[in-house]
Amino acid sequence: MLSWDQMPNLALMRCCRAWVEIDLAALRHNVQHLLALLQGRTELMAVVKADAYGHGAVMVAQTAIAAGATWLGVATVPEGIELRQAGMTAPILVMGAVNEVEEVRAIAQWHLQPTLVSPKQALIFSETLAPRPGQPVPVHLKLDTGMSRLGFPWQQAQTFVEFVQRLPHLHVASVYSHLATADSPDPTILNQQHQRFEAAIAQLQSADLRPRHLHLANSAATLGHPALHYDRVRAGLALYGLYPAPHLKTAAHLCPVMQVKARITHIKDIEPGTGVSYGHQFVADRPMRIAVVGIGYADGVPRALSNQMQVLIDGRRAQQIGAITMDQMMLDVTAIPNLREGDVVTVLGTSGEDAITADDWAALTDTISWEILCGFKHRLPRIAIGQPLPQPASSQARDRH
Ligand SMILES: Cc1ncc(COP(=O)(O)O)c(C=O)c1O
Q1: φ, ψ for residue 317, nearest 5 deg
Q2: Entry pTM
Q3: 22 alpha carbon – ligand 1 mean position (Å)
Q4: Domains located in the chain, CATH noted
Q5: What is the pLDDT of residues 111-144, one digit of tens each?
Q6: With CB atoms counted within 10 Å of each terminal CB, which end of the chain scores lower, N or C?
Q7: How far is the CA of 235 from the centre of ligand 1 (A)?
Protein backbone atom coordinates (compact mmCIF):
# COMPACT_ATOMS: atom_id res chain seq x y z
CA MET A 1 0.00 0.00 0.00
CA LEU A 2 1.47 3.36 -1.02
CA SER A 3 1.44 6.24 1.43
CA TRP A 4 0.00 9.60 0.29
CA ASP A 5 3.33 11.18 -0.47
CA GLN A 6 4.51 8.23 -2.58
CA MET A 7 1.49 8.21 -4.85
CA PRO A 8 1.57 9.97 -8.21
CA ASN A 9 -0.77 12.97 -8.32
CA LEU A 10 -3.21 11.46 -10.78
CA ALA A 11 -3.56 8.25 -8.80
CA LEU A 12 -4.06 10.28 -5.64
CA MET A 13 -6.82 12.34 -7.20
CA ARG A 14 -8.49 9.19 -8.55
CA CYS A 15 -8.57 7.44 -5.22
CA CYS A 16 -9.69 10.47 -3.21
CA ARG A 17 -13.16 11.78 -2.58
CA ALA A 18 -11.64 15.20 -1.83
CA TRP A 19 -8.24 16.87 -1.91
CA VAL A 20 -6.39 20.18 -1.76
CA GLU A 21 -4.47 21.32 -4.85
CA ILE A 22 -1.44 23.51 -4.27
CA ASP A 23 -0.40 25.52 -7.30
CA LEU A 24 3.36 25.95 -6.94
CA ALA A 25 3.53 28.15 -10.04
CA ALA A 26 1.12 30.56 -8.32
CA LEU A 27 3.29 30.46 -5.21
CA ARG A 28 6.42 31.31 -7.23
CA HIS A 29 4.50 34.13 -8.90
CA ASN A 30 3.48 35.56 -5.50
CA VAL A 31 7.01 35.34 -4.11
CA GLN A 32 8.37 37.17 -7.15
CA HIS A 33 5.71 39.87 -6.97
CA LEU A 34 6.37 40.43 -3.28
CA LEU A 35 10.13 40.59 -3.90
CA ALA A 36 9.47 43.24 -6.55
CA LEU A 37 8.00 45.48 -3.82
CA LEU A 38 11.17 45.35 -1.74
CA GLN A 39 14.03 47.81 -2.00
CA GLY A 40 17.74 47.10 -1.91
CA ARG A 41 18.77 44.56 0.66
CA THR A 42 15.36 43.90 2.21
CA GLU A 43 14.80 40.15 2.43
CA LEU A 44 11.61 38.12 2.27
CA MET A 45 10.77 35.70 5.05
CA ALA A 46 8.19 33.13 3.95
CA VAL A 47 5.92 32.54 6.94
CA VAL A 48 5.17 28.82 6.77
CA LYS A 49 3.81 28.22 10.26
CA ALA A 50 0.66 26.12 10.71
CA ASP A 51 1.74 23.83 7.86
CA ALA A 52 2.13 26.88 5.62
CA TYR A 53 -1.38 28.07 6.45
CA GLY A 54 -2.69 24.64 5.51
CA HIS A 55 -0.81 24.44 2.19
CA GLY A 56 1.91 21.96 3.23
CA ALA A 57 4.97 23.45 4.91
CA VAL A 58 7.71 21.48 3.19
CA MET A 59 6.64 22.00 -0.41
CA VAL A 60 5.80 25.65 0.22
CA ALA A 61 9.14 26.27 1.95
CA GLN A 62 11.10 24.56 -0.85
CA THR A 63 9.29 26.52 -3.55
CA ALA A 64 9.43 29.88 -1.75
CA ILE A 65 13.17 29.58 -1.12
CA ALA A 66 13.82 28.49 -4.71
CA ALA A 67 11.82 31.54 -5.86
CA GLY A 68 13.91 34.02 -3.86
CA ALA A 69 12.71 34.10 -0.25
CA THR A 70 15.72 33.81 2.07
CA TRP A 71 14.13 33.11 5.46
CA LEU A 72 11.44 30.81 6.80
CA GLY A 73 9.17 31.66 9.73
CA VAL A 74 7.46 29.05 11.90
CA ALA A 75 5.55 29.24 15.17
CA THR A 76 6.91 26.20 16.99
CA VAL A 77 10.05 24.11 17.37
CA PRO A 78 8.49 20.95 15.82
CA GLU A 79 7.48 23.00 12.77
CA GLY A 80 11.11 24.04 12.36
CA ILE A 81 12.36 20.48 12.84
CA GLU A 82 9.98 19.24 10.15
CA LEU A 83 11.60 21.63 7.67
CA ARG A 84 15.15 20.65 8.69
CA GLN A 85 14.29 16.96 8.43
CA ALA A 86 13.04 17.64 4.89
CA GLY A 87 16.47 19.06 4.05
CA MET A 88 15.72 22.77 4.25
CA THR A 89 18.87 24.73 5.03
CA ALA A 90 17.57 28.32 5.00
CA PRO A 91 17.57 30.19 8.32
CA ILE A 92 14.38 29.45 10.27
CA LEU A 93 12.93 31.89 12.81
CA VAL A 94 10.73 30.33 15.50
CA MET A 95 8.28 33.16 16.17
CA GLY A 96 6.46 31.59 19.12
CA ALA A 97 7.79 31.69 22.66
CA VAL A 98 10.17 28.93 23.72
CA ASN A 99 10.62 28.38 27.46
CA GLU A 100 11.21 24.67 27.99
CA VAL A 101 14.74 23.35 28.37
CA GLU A 102 14.08 20.54 25.86
CA GLU A 103 12.89 23.06 23.30
CA VAL A 104 16.05 25.11 23.81
CA ARG A 105 18.19 22.03 23.21
CA ALA A 106 16.21 21.20 20.08
CA ILE A 107 16.68 24.78 18.82
CA ALA A 108 20.45 24.39 19.10
CA GLN A 109 20.49 20.86 17.69
CA TRP A 110 18.42 21.74 14.63
CA HIS A 111 19.97 25.17 14.00
CA LEU A 112 16.71 27.02 14.52
CA GLN A 113 16.65 30.66 15.59
CA PRO A 114 14.42 31.55 18.53
CA THR A 115 12.44 34.64 19.43
CA LEU A 116 13.26 35.98 22.89
CA VAL A 117 10.68 38.10 24.65
CA SER A 118 12.12 38.56 28.15
CA PRO A 119 15.42 38.54 30.07
CA LYS A 120 14.15 35.53 32.04
CA GLN A 121 13.74 33.53 28.84
CA ALA A 122 17.18 34.66 27.65
CA LEU A 123 18.69 33.33 30.90
CA ILE A 124 17.02 29.93 30.38
CA PHE A 125 18.62 29.79 26.94
CA SER A 126 22.06 30.82 28.10
CA GLU A 127 22.07 28.40 31.05
CA THR A 128 20.72 25.49 29.02
CA LEU A 129 23.33 25.99 26.30
CA ALA A 130 26.22 26.41 28.77
CA PRO A 131 27.24 22.72 29.25
CA ARG A 132 27.89 22.22 25.55
CA PRO A 133 28.77 25.60 24.06
CA GLY A 134 29.33 25.66 20.34
CA GLN A 135 28.65 28.54 18.00
CA PRO A 136 26.52 31.18 19.74
CA VAL A 137 22.82 30.69 18.97
CA PRO A 138 21.40 33.60 16.95
CA VAL A 139 18.42 35.04 18.83
CA HIS A 140 15.79 37.53 17.74
CA LEU A 141 14.55 39.97 20.36
CA LYS A 142 10.91 40.87 20.09
CA LEU A 143 9.54 44.18 21.31
CA ASP A 144 5.90 44.80 22.09
CA THR A 145 5.00 48.05 20.33
CA GLY A 146 1.23 47.65 20.58
CA MET A 147 0.15 44.11 19.71
CA SER A 148 0.12 43.16 23.43
CA ARG A 149 1.03 39.59 22.58
CA LEU A 150 4.66 38.44 22.69
CA GLY A 151 7.41 41.00 23.25
CA PHE A 152 9.34 43.04 25.81
CA PRO A 153 8.09 46.62 26.40
CA TRP A 154 9.49 48.81 23.61
CA GLN A 155 10.37 51.52 26.14
CA GLN A 156 12.94 49.14 27.67
CA ALA A 157 14.58 48.04 24.42
CA GLN A 158 18.04 49.15 25.56
CA THR A 159 17.90 47.25 28.88
CA PHE A 160 16.72 44.11 27.08
CA VAL A 161 19.31 44.17 24.29
CA GLU A 162 22.17 44.98 26.71
CA PHE A 163 21.11 42.14 29.00
CA VAL A 164 21.03 39.56 26.19
CA GLN A 165 24.27 40.79 24.65
CA ARG A 166 26.08 40.20 27.92
CA LEU A 167 24.95 36.57 28.13
CA PRO A 168 27.29 33.89 26.81
CA HIS A 169 26.22 31.51 24.02
CA LEU A 170 23.72 33.96 22.49
CA HIS A 171 24.10 36.38 19.63
CA VAL A 172 21.51 39.11 18.95
CA ALA A 173 20.67 38.60 15.27
CA SER A 174 17.68 40.93 15.00
CA VAL A 175 15.23 43.12 16.87
CA TYR A 176 11.65 42.96 15.71
CA SER A 177 8.03 43.68 16.46
CA HIS A 178 4.61 42.70 15.13
CA LEU A 179 1.80 44.92 13.86
CA ALA A 180 -1.77 44.71 15.12
CA THR A 181 -3.68 46.72 12.50
CA ALA A 182 -1.60 46.86 9.33
CA ASP A 183 -4.59 45.70 7.27
CA SER A 184 -6.80 48.57 8.43
CA PRO A 185 -7.39 51.53 6.11
CA ASP A 186 -7.06 53.73 9.23
CA PRO A 187 -3.31 54.07 9.87
CA THR A 188 -3.53 55.60 13.37
CA ILE A 189 -2.44 52.55 15.37
CA LEU A 190 0.00 51.43 12.70
CA ASN A 191 1.68 54.85 12.83
CA GLN A 192 1.87 54.65 16.60
CA GLN A 193 3.54 51.22 16.42
CA HIS A 194 5.93 52.53 13.76
CA GLN A 195 6.88 55.52 15.91
CA ARG A 196 7.41 53.29 18.95
CA PHE A 197 9.63 50.94 16.93
CA GLU A 198 11.62 53.93 15.66
CA ALA A 199 11.93 55.31 19.20
CA ALA A 200 13.23 51.94 20.41
CA ILE A 201 15.80 51.86 17.59
CA ALA A 202 16.89 55.42 18.42
CA GLN A 203 17.30 54.37 22.05
CA LEU A 204 19.52 51.46 20.98
CA GLN A 205 21.58 53.62 18.66
CA SER A 206 22.20 56.24 21.32
CA ALA A 207 23.63 53.45 23.49
CA ASP A 208 25.73 52.32 20.51
CA LEU A 209 23.72 49.11 20.15
CA ARG A 210 23.22 48.28 16.50
CA PRO A 211 21.32 45.03 15.94
CA ARG A 212 22.21 43.61 12.56
CA HIS A 213 18.63 43.33 11.38
CA LEU A 214 15.30 45.02 12.09
CA HIS A 215 11.89 43.79 10.95
CA LEU A 216 8.28 44.75 11.47
CA ALA A 217 6.14 44.10 8.38
CA ASN A 218 3.60 41.32 7.86
CA SER A 219 1.80 40.87 4.51
CA ALA A 220 -0.35 43.98 4.91
CA ALA A 221 2.63 46.22 5.66
CA THR A 222 4.65 44.54 2.91
CA LEU A 223 1.90 45.42 0.44
CA GLY A 224 0.86 48.80 1.74
CA HIS A 225 3.68 50.42 3.72
CA PRO A 226 7.16 50.40 2.16
CA ALA A 227 8.49 52.59 4.99
CA LEU A 228 7.97 49.62 7.31
CA HIS A 229 9.99 47.09 5.32
CA TYR A 230 13.32 47.60 7.16
CA ASP A 231 15.75 44.68 6.56
CA ARG A 232 13.22 41.87 6.22
CA VAL A 233 9.50 41.42 5.73
CA ARG A 234 7.61 38.46 7.18
CA ALA A 235 4.87 37.57 4.70
CA GLY A 236 2.31 34.83 5.23
CA LEU A 237 -1.11 35.43 3.72
CA ALA A 238 0.14 37.29 0.63
CA LEU A 239 2.44 34.40 -0.19
CA TYR A 240 -0.66 32.23 -0.50
CA GLY A 241 -2.26 34.68 -2.92
CA LEU A 242 -4.79 36.40 -0.67
CA TYR A 243 -4.97 40.05 0.29
CA PRO A 244 -5.18 41.03 3.97
CA ALA A 245 -7.77 43.69 3.03
CA PRO A 246 -9.57 44.84 -0.14
CA HIS A 247 -7.81 48.23 -0.25
CA LEU A 248 -4.44 46.43 -0.62
CA LYS A 249 -5.44 44.70 -3.85
CA THR A 250 -3.80 47.33 -6.05
CA ALA A 251 -0.37 46.88 -4.45
CA ALA A 252 0.58 43.63 -6.18
CA HIS A 253 -0.93 41.00 -8.41
CA LEU A 254 -1.32 37.85 -6.31
CA CYS A 255 -2.78 34.47 -7.30
CA PRO A 256 -4.45 32.08 -4.84
CA VAL A 257 -2.30 28.99 -4.35
CA MET A 258 -4.89 26.65 -2.83
CA GLN A 259 -7.90 25.04 -4.47
CA VAL A 260 -10.15 22.49 -2.81
CA LYS A 261 -11.83 19.85 -4.95
CA ALA A 262 -14.20 16.98 -4.20
CA ARG A 263 -16.07 14.30 -6.10
CA ILE A 264 -19.77 13.74 -6.54
CA THR A 265 -20.36 10.38 -4.89
CA HIS A 266 -24.09 9.97 -5.44
CA ILE A 267 -26.89 11.61 -7.46
CA LYS A 268 -30.61 11.28 -6.79
CA ASP A 269 -33.95 12.85 -7.63
CA ILE A 270 -36.19 13.98 -4.79
CA GLU A 271 -39.87 14.89 -4.59
CA PRO A 272 -41.30 18.19 -3.33
CA GLY A 273 -41.56 18.07 0.47
CA THR A 274 -38.45 15.91 0.88
CA GLY A 275 -36.16 17.05 3.71
CA VAL A 276 -32.41 17.06 3.13
CA SER A 277 -29.69 16.25 5.72
CA TYR A 278 -29.69 16.41 9.53
CA GLY A 279 -32.49 18.46 11.00
CA HIS A 280 -34.18 18.85 7.61
CA GLN A 281 -33.03 22.48 7.50
CA PHE A 282 -33.74 22.31 3.79
CA VAL A 283 -36.99 20.94 2.35
CA ALA A 284 -37.47 20.66 -1.42
CA ASP A 285 -40.27 22.90 -2.73
CA ARG A 286 -40.18 21.27 -6.20
CA PRO A 287 -38.84 18.14 -7.86
CA MET A 288 -35.06 18.38 -7.54
CA ARG A 289 -31.93 16.56 -8.54
CA ILE A 290 -29.36 16.57 -5.76
CA ALA A 291 -25.72 15.49 -5.69
CA VAL A 292 -23.88 14.21 -2.64
CA VAL A 293 -20.26 15.44 -2.51
CA GLY A 294 -17.57 13.74 -0.44
CA ILE A 295 -16.39 16.63 1.70
CA GLY A 296 -17.68 17.94 5.01
CA TYR A 297 -16.87 19.81 8.18
CA ALA A 298 -14.31 17.25 9.32
CA ASP A 299 -12.34 18.21 6.20
CA GLY A 300 -12.46 21.92 7.00
CA VAL A 301 -15.63 23.19 5.34
CA PRO A 302 -17.25 25.24 8.13
CA ARG A 303 -20.65 23.83 9.09
CA ALA A 304 -21.78 27.45 9.42
CA LEU A 305 -21.75 27.56 5.61
CA SER A 306 -24.71 25.16 5.47
CA ASN A 307 -27.27 26.46 2.98
CA GLN A 308 -25.00 29.50 2.41
CA MET A 309 -22.24 28.29 0.15
CA GLN A 310 -22.02 27.41 -3.51
CA VAL A 311 -19.58 25.25 -5.43
CA LEU A 312 -18.44 25.35 -9.05
CA ILE A 313 -19.08 22.60 -11.55
CA ASP A 314 -17.51 23.26 -14.96
CA GLY A 315 -17.79 27.00 -14.37
CA ARG A 316 -21.42 26.86 -13.19
CA ARG A 317 -22.55 27.53 -9.64
CA ALA A 318 -24.46 24.92 -7.66
CA GLN A 319 -26.10 25.79 -4.34
CA GLN A 320 -25.24 23.68 -1.28
CA ILE A 321 -28.41 22.57 0.53
CA GLY A 322 -29.15 21.18 3.98
CA ALA A 323 -26.76 20.87 6.91
CA ILE A 324 -23.15 20.17 5.94
CA THR A 325 -22.28 16.85 7.58
CA MET A 326 -18.96 15.51 8.84
CA ASP A 327 -17.78 13.98 5.56
CA GLN A 328 -20.41 14.94 2.99
CA MET A 329 -22.64 17.71 1.75
CA MET A 330 -25.52 17.95 -0.69
CA LEU A 331 -25.92 20.21 -3.73
CA ASP A 332 -28.87 21.30 -5.81
CA VAL A 333 -27.83 20.24 -9.31
CA THR A 334 -31.29 20.37 -10.88
CA ALA A 335 -30.14 22.92 -13.48
CA ILE A 336 -26.88 21.19 -14.36
CA PRO A 337 -27.40 18.42 -16.91
CA ASN A 338 -25.29 15.33 -17.61
CA LEU A 339 -23.62 15.06 -14.22
CA ARG A 340 -22.20 11.72 -13.21
CA GLU A 341 -21.00 10.16 -10.01
CA GLY A 342 -17.24 10.68 -9.87
CA ASP A 343 -17.38 14.15 -11.44
CA VAL A 344 -15.19 16.75 -9.75
CA VAL A 345 -16.57 19.82 -8.01
CA THR A 346 -14.51 22.92 -7.17
CA VAL A 347 -15.34 23.68 -3.56
CA LEU A 348 -12.86 26.55 -3.30
CA GLY A 349 -11.01 27.90 -6.32
CA THR A 350 -11.54 28.73 -9.96
CA SER A 351 -13.62 26.94 -12.58
CA GLY A 352 -14.26 28.49 -15.98
CA GLU A 353 -14.65 32.24 -15.54
CA ASP A 354 -15.86 32.01 -11.95
CA ALA A 355 -14.06 31.70 -8.62
CA ILE A 356 -14.95 31.07 -5.00
CA THR A 357 -12.31 32.36 -2.59
CA ALA A 358 -11.38 31.98 1.05
CA ASP A 359 -12.42 35.63 1.39
CA ASP A 360 -15.94 34.67 0.26
CA TRP A 361 -16.15 31.98 2.93
CA ALA A 362 -14.65 34.28 5.55
CA ALA A 363 -17.31 36.92 4.81
CA LEU A 364 -20.09 34.33 5.05
CA THR A 365 -18.87 32.91 8.36
CA ASP A 366 -17.69 36.17 9.98
CA THR A 367 -14.05 35.16 10.20
CA ILE A 368 -10.81 35.89 8.34
CA SER A 369 -9.29 34.14 5.32
CA TRP A 370 -6.29 33.04 7.42
CA GLU A 371 -8.61 30.83 9.48
CA ILE A 372 -10.32 29.37 6.41
CA LEU A 373 -6.98 28.34 4.85
CA CYS A 374 -5.63 26.85 8.09
CA GLY A 375 -8.89 24.98 8.62
CA PHE A 376 -8.39 22.30 5.95
CA LYS A 377 -7.53 19.08 7.70
CA HIS A 378 -4.79 16.62 6.97
CA ARG A 379 -7.14 13.92 5.82
CA LEU A 380 -7.31 15.90 2.57
CA PRO A 381 -4.07 15.13 0.75
CA ARG A 382 -2.17 18.15 -0.53
CA ILE A 383 -1.43 17.65 -4.21
CA ALA A 384 1.19 19.87 -5.84
CA ILE A 385 0.43 21.11 -9.32
CA GLY A 386 2.06 23.77 -11.46
CA GLN A 387 5.66 22.69 -11.55
CA PRO A 388 8.06 20.06 -10.29
CA LEU A 389 9.28 20.57 -6.76
CA PRO A 390 12.80 21.99 -6.51
CA GLN A 391 15.43 19.75 -4.96
CA PRO A 392 16.29 20.58 -1.36
CA ALA A 393 19.64 22.38 -1.20
CA SER A 394 22.70 20.59 0.18
CA SER A 395 22.84 20.22 3.92
CA GLN A 396 26.15 22.09 4.17
CA ALA A 397 24.53 25.52 4.23
CA ARG A 398 22.92 24.74 7.56
CA ASP A 399 26.15 25.53 9.39
CA ARG A 400 26.20 29.06 8.04
CA HIS A 401 23.30 30.16 10.19
C1 LIG B 1 5.14 37.39 14.11
C2 LIG B 1 4.44 37.21 12.81
N3 LIG B 1 4.98 37.77 11.73
C4 LIG B 1 4.39 37.65 10.51
C5 LIG B 1 3.21 36.96 10.35
C6 LIG B 1 2.58 36.86 8.98
O7 LIG B 1 1.36 37.51 8.96
P8 LIG B 1 0.51 37.61 7.60
O9 LIG B 1 -0.05 36.26 7.34
O10 LIG B 1 -0.54 38.62 7.90
O11 LIG B 1 1.47 38.04 6.55
C12 LIG B 1 2.61 36.38 11.47
C13 LIG B 1 1.33 35.67 11.34
O14 LIG B 1 0.46 35.70 12.12
C15 LIG B 1 3.26 36.51 12.73
O16 LIG B 1 2.72 35.96 13.83
Answers
A1: -85, 140
A2: 0.93
A3: 20
A4: 24-240 (3.20.20.10), 258-356 (2.40.37.10)
A5: 999 999 999 999 999 999 887 777 899 999 999 9
A6: N
A7: 6
